[in-house]
Amino acid sequence: AYLFGDASSPLVLEKARLPQAKAMAIALPDPLATRLTLNRALSLAPDLDITVRAHGNAEIDTLYQLGAQEVVQPEFEASLEMGAHLLLNLGDSTFEVQQVVNRYRTGRYRDILPERSEYWGATALETAIEGLQRHWYELPPDSPLAGANLAEANIRRLTGATVMAVERHKHLHRYPTGEMQLAAGDRLLVVGSFEAHHRFEALLKAEG
Known about the structure:
Layout: H1 10-15, E1 23-26, H2 31-44, E2 49-53, H3 59-65, E3 70-72, H4 74-89, H5 94-106, H6 118-128, E4 134-138, H7 150-153, H8 155-159, E5 162-168, E6 171-174, E7 187-191, H9 194-205
Parallel strand pairs: 1-2, 2-3
Antiparallel strand pairs: 4-7, 5-6, 5-7
Helix pairs in contact: 4-5
C-alpha cells in the first residue's frame, strides 16, 4: 500500500501509521518541508528511526537536534565516496578506508565543515526554526527539570517537543546535547506542535 500527498501534512503522517513503522527516510526538495515532516513524524512516533537528507551544511545540526537518527549531506557523501575510491586504489585496505569514512559520518562531517562564526550560528538557528511553532520558556526553581540533563529529562519522548537552544546568563547555547544540565532560570527555546507545547508546559510545571 502507498499514500499520495504532502509528507509534512499531519493528516498524511497519521494515515501512514508511523507508530508501527520500523524506519523512515525523508528526502524532500524543500528544507522547510523537511523540518516540518521530521518534527511532526517524531511527535507521532518519538522512537522512530529517521534518516534525513540535508540540503546544506547549515541543516546538519538542526536535523540532528530535531531528532533525526542519521543525516545525509549529498555533497559530503560524494566527497567521501571519491576519497574512499582513491584510497583503495592507492593500496589502503577496505577496513581502514571504511574506518575513516565512518569516523567522518559519526562526527557529523565536522572535520570537513568550514569553521562557523557566531553570526553564522545565530542565522542558522533562525533559519532552522522558521515555520515551526516555537516558544521561549523559563525554567522555574521548583520544576522537576531543574538539575536534570536533557537526556534524563527525555523531553522529546515525553512531550513531542524539542529544545533547540538554552539561554543561561545571557549566553545562548545552540543545539544543546543530552549531557547539558538544566538549571533554574534557564530559558529554553522549544519547538513542536500545539499539543507538544501543551505537554511540555505540563512537564515544566509538574511537581517533583
